[in-house]
Amino acid sequence: MSSIIKIKNLTFSYSAEEERKTLDNVNLEIEAGQWVALIGHNGSGKSTLARCIDGLLMPESGSIEVDGLHLTEETVWDVRERIGMVFQNPDNQFVGADVEGDVAFGMENRGIPRSEMQKRVKEVLEAVDMTAFAKHEPVRLSGGQKQRVAIAGVLAVRPKIIIFDESTSMLDPEGKRDIVGLMRRLNDEENFTIISITHDIDEASLADRVIVLNDGRVIDDDVPEKIFASGDLLTKIGLDLPYPEALKEELKEKGIDVPNEYLDEEGMVDWLCRSALKN
Amino acid sequence: MPIRVEKLSYSYQAGTPMEHKALEDVSLEITDGSYTAVIGHTGSGKSTLMQHLNGLLKPTEGFLEINGRQITPETQNKELGDLRKEVGFVFQFPEAQLFEETVKKDIAFAPKNFGKSDEEAEAIAVRMAKMVDLPDEVLDKSPFELSGGQMRRVAIAGILAMEPKILVLDEPTAGLDPMGRLEMMRLFSRLHKNGMTIILVTHQMNDVADYADHALVLEHGRLIADTTPKALFSKPEWLREHHLDLPQTTKFAEKLMASGMKFDSLPLTKKELAQILADRIKGGSADE
Q1: Residues sharing a CB contact under 8 Å with residue A96, sequence separation 6 or more, in sequence order
Q2: Shortest CA gap A51–chain B (Å)
Q3: Separation between Cα atoms, residue A210 and residue A222, nearest integer Å
Q4: What does the alpha-carbon distance between residue B184 and residue B147 come to, in Å, rounded to a whole number?
Q5: Which of B147, B248, B256 has the CB atom closest to A273's CB atom?
Q6: Ranges of each domain in chain A
Q7: Residue with more model confidence, B40 or B84
Q8: A71 CB neighbour count, 10 Å cutoff
Q9: A275 contacts B284? CB cut-off 8 A
Q10: Is B69 helix (H, G, I), strand (E, B) or coil?
Q11: Helices B148-160 and B178-193, axial angle in degrees (round to 10)
Q12: Is A276 in Cβ contact with B281 (below 8 Å)?
């Protein structure tokens, strides 16, 4: 497998007076087709990292390579062709008068011919299951539907990498499930590389790999099962645990001997039933 | 009886062909010092109902009564001004409404506006900043230099500075990280313990289970449940029918039941479930 993103010694701060760097010597490689969850509390540097990868912010030092391109002021537009970003607030991302027009906006900017645009709009609205809403006004859609439209707009310009920057945090539970399901499909079936910046531990647990940022540094980087088994670390930096792990911590406090390894829901149900029903 | 809503209906653009009924025949009561959760999907009428509580909207039919003051379709807008001192309203992303040069001035704005002297207003600001756990050193900073969580605290302190008896919170933790969320919920819990009536509009069923003692469910402008969280979450089928979530603990307990474990009633909170399980695990080993 080849790395689609290579980050070497990346350092960034918003102002020279800041004592602490927003990103402090970050080294990362992300493989093509991987789903990576980036977790950390507010201010840990997650969004700054995403913005550096997309060339929205220029690093103080270090280098970023995206799909074989070394990111510089000269290559930034080519790099952005390869990356789509979906942000937190769906309302801030609309420009078109109707759903179709909105999805086409990114393509218009790139001078894609009209017939090709029409074809792609149809394709991507189908991909996000919003064909029926093509003529609707974006403002009248639900939060989840708005995010689907934003994702369609991103897909239309055919990036290789999609970055979701807390894209589910303002949605209700149904909207959240909906968008996470779509992320999974884009990764499984369409093989997009996905970076999801999230506080939602259930969303993170679906990823192939979880990277934990704290105060601008990568403090852990592993498969979800390993990350979530190291419970104290996540709690200490202000993050949630998956429910079965949180319940385990609570039982431990009550003096119960719990297994050390990570248990998902099924595993925890099994273990509890065996322990509590053994007589 | 601080809040009584009686056969209230509200229509947007009433009397036009565009008329849209956002609330229909809603009757309810909210008692002093209670913690009420208001649940429902986007478009269910939650926000419309909340906007009646501080006089931003008046009923099209029916009436409501807040601390003895009646609001009917005929009430004049100028009679509603005082209501805003009694009912504090924290909108979504309240930090968007900060505007003053310093944190202290921002918090002091409302009391000054309602006729307090500069000194009095500042003293209130300092007290409120303490109440929401803002460190002293931020008082003379610009609110725009603070972190998102701190900015939200400033906005909430500004609302508390009006010394409301009732606090309406519309998704107050949206966009905060888990620690920020927990701290915010603990703050409201503390205000509640000090006697404030709290009305929380939320999608977070864990918060409903952990904090509320009263739950209202709206759907298509109608009140479809007026009950306790315990009773509400004991009917998972009904909730699913209405596309509403369960608290994580209740969902997990259902899975345990499917695997053969029995519960007298479905537990709501993690602590409650952990206690039941710990007793059973210990009880089990003691018998061996």
Answers
A1: A102, A103, A104, A105, A138
A2: 18
A3: 6
A4: 14
A5: B256
A6: 3-226, 242-279
A7: B40
A8: 22
A9: yes
A10: strand
A11: 20
A12: yes
Q: How far apart, in whole angstroms, are the C-alpha atoms of residue B269 and residue B248?
A: 8
Q: Name the residue ranges covered by the structural domains of chain B.
A: 3-229, 247-288
Q: B18 and chain A: CB distance < 8 Å anywhere?
A: no
Q: CB count, 10 Å around CB of B118?
A: 11
Strand partners, B3: B30, B66
- Architecture per CATH, domain B3-229, reads as 3-Layer(aba) Sandwich (3.40)
CA distance B161 to chain A (A): 27
Residue of B38, B147, B177, B279 for testing the chain A interface, max A β-carbons within 10 Å = B177
ipTM of the complex: 0.81
What integer pLDDT is reported at residue B284 of this predicted model?
Answer: 58
Q: Does B219 touch chain A (CB under 8 A)?
A: no
Residue of B nearest to A168 (CA): B175
Length, in residues, of chain B:
288
pLDDT at B156: 93
In degrees, rounded to 5, the angle at the alpha carbon of residue B256 between the alpha carbons of residues B250 and B260 is 140
**Which residues of chain B make contact with A276, given a CB cutoff of 8 A?**
261, 277, 280-281, 284
Query: What is the rounded average pLDDT of the residues A73-78?
Result: 92
CA-based R_g, chain B, Å:
21
Q: CA of A118, closest CA in chain B: separation in Å?
A: 31
Does position B176 have pLDDT exceeding 90, yes or no?
Answer: no
Q: What is the pLDDT of residue B1?
A: 55
Q: Which CATH class is domain A3-226?
A: alpha beta
User: Any chain A CB within 8 A of the CB of B273?
Assistant: yes
